[in-house]
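During the no-cost extension, the postdoctoral fellow (Dr. R.K.) reprocessed legacy sequence entries with the updated structure-token encoder. One reprocessed record is reproduced below for audit purposes.
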Amino acid sequence: MSEQSKFIVTYEINYVHRVQVGVIASNKEAAILSAKQAFDHGSIWDDTQEMPLLFDQYIEIGDGSLTFSAEPVADFPEPDESVNDIRRKENAFKACNYLLKDIDSGLNFAMEVFAGLPSVQAGNETPNFG
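Re-encoded structure tokens follow.
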């Protein structure tokens, strides 16, 4: 068996990130300034009533050429903050999904447990879970 080495492989593809937002302004320059300020503050993607997000896509440009390169390394570095942000969002989404599943299961279980209690059926009182 041949000896294995570590590599950081990078791929790059040419694209444009096109974002369109709705802006109400007195003129074209004021609209652009408003959008630039929102971009600088990181709020252009907030999708608010005052500045609705209308379009947000990555569009390949040119021939869409995809290039790969590899660099040998002794060890892998810590992930960049962009990866940590993706992981945080994915974990938050998973946590919400698990919570929703547990709430649903918990609700079904509670309904089965308390289905025979007269006070719950009649709606006279809330059951004491403690």
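Strands lie at 6-13, 15-21, 53-60, 66-73. The mean pLDDT is 82. The remaining legacy entries will be reprocessed before the final report is submitted.
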